[in-house]
Design goal:
Number of strands: 8
Organism: Acidithiobacillus ferrooxidans (Thiobacillus ferrooxidans)
InterPro entries: CB, DNA_brk_join_enz, Integrase-like_cat_sf, Integrase_catalytic, Integrase_recombinase_N, Tyrosine_recombinase_XerCD
Number of domains: 4
CATH architecture of the largest domain: Orthogonal Bundle
Helix content: 40-55%
Keywords: DNA integration, DNA recombination, DNA-binding
CATH superfamily of the largest domain: Intergrase catalytic core
Family: Belongs to the 'phage' integrase family.
Strand content: 5-15%
CATH class of the largest domain: Mainly Alpha
Largest sheet: 3 strands, antiparallel
Structural class: mainly alpha
Radius of gyration: 30 Å
Oligomer: single chain
Protein name: Integrase
């Protein structure tokens, strides 16, 4: 039967197996509500009498995905992306999620933002559809090819640039930025850092597994510079290290950040690039890649190799392997120059 709650029609019937089906029709149009009622009732009869697989929608998959993946470090990002996708896939049956339809939506995001951002949305769709196969809601997942992405340079600051930036930042952001440069911690870990995670006597701090992107605990050795920042923050707040007007800092890349960059004459630099700067300085100072991986809490060595080119000294001996050949070329070149000079004279 159909009945109304406020302006919205609701569906209520009992399937042949005795299961009660009660749900909103999400419409105030009785004709549309009746069509949905009849379709759901017909599907319920076919599932019980003919053994057909239930028809699940994108909404059903998204809700189950969120329920099962609430532990993910990127859960908030998934929620944001699903909210955007919902405006295009709301109510669409999984069996009707065709490749061309999905790529049309992905193209909208690509034109609106960038290929890299669109790829994050495609990755989420792929993951959900693969999970639907695991749940036996689909027979097979679609093959969705990612967009080509331009290789980006690692953006980092020279020490003198970092000094100019720190001088231009307001006090609370300056402390956070200096601490980031000293520890390499991610933005979220710095913003949410609590005094209970710090032992100044031992000179260490720690990031708990549920706070780390790779879901593995990170031990942080506090340098004298990091400790100096923490000592400046003592007494500011009973729980959080970095606060502004007695509240935890929730936004670092705001107007104050961008204005400071402009005054410091620094372009194309994000807050996350402070972490890149920390890693780049370490590599140039001789820190081994495998140790940097552990210090930075990266899950794989591949994530660290993007900094390797900044310290090619470990290949210096190999670079000399062809020096004998190059020296011979130099002799030949000198002789040619001498011959030319004699011909001219």
């Amino acid at each position: 039967m159909l009945y109304k709650r406020g302006k919205t029609w609701w569906i209520d019937f009992t399937a042949p197996n005795g299961q009660r089906i009660r749900r909103s029709a999400d419409t105030d149009d009785k004709v549309q509500a009746q069509e949905l009622h009849d379709r759901l009732k017909s599907e319920a009869w076919r599932q019980v009498k003919l053994g057909e697989r239930p028809s699940y929608t994108w909404d059903d998959a998204g809700l189950r995905w969120l329920d099962e993946k609430a532990h993910k470090a990127s859960f908030a990002d998934d929620v944001q992306r699903l909210n955007w996708l919902q405006s295009y896939f709301r109510g669409v049956l999984l069996t009707e999620m065709k490749k061309n339809i999905i790529m049309e939506v992905a193209d909208l995001k690509r034109r609106e933002t960038s290929p890299a951002t669109a790829n994050r949305y495609l990755a989420l769709i792929r993951s959900i559809l693969r999970q639907c196969v695991e749940w036996e809601w689909l027979d097979a997942a679609l093959m969705l090819r990612a967009y080509p992405e331009a290789k980006r340079r690692v953006r980092w600051l020279l020490p003198e640039e970092a000094q100019r930036l720190l001088l231009e930042l307001p006090a609370h952001l300056r402390d956070m930025a200096e601490f980031s440069l000293a520890t390499g911690l991610r933005q979220a870990n710095v913003k949410e850092l609590e005094w209970s995670q710090i032992n100044l006597f031992r000179g260490v701090a720690w990031i708990h597994p549920d706070q780390a992107k790779a879901r593995k605990a990170i031990g942080v050795n506090l340098t004298p510079s990091a400790i100096a920042v923490l000592r400046r923050r003592l007494g500011e707040h009973h729980r959080y290290v970095f606060t502004y007007k007695d509240h935890p800092v929730t936004q670092v890349s705001g107007k104050a950040w961008w204005n400071a960059l402009k005054r410091a004459g620094i372009e194309n630099f994000r807050w996350h690039d402070l972490r890149h700067t920390w890693a780049s300085w370490h590599i140039q100072a001789g820190t081994p890649l495998f140790k940097l991986q552990e210090m930075g809490g990266w899950e794989s060595m591949e994530m660290v190799l993007k900094y390797a080119h900044l310290a090619p000294e470990h290949l210096a001996a190999e670079a000399l392997n062809i020096e004998t050949i190059l020296a011979g070329l130099g002799t030949f070149t000198s002789q040619r120059e001498k011959d030319l000079e004699e011909n001219i004279s």
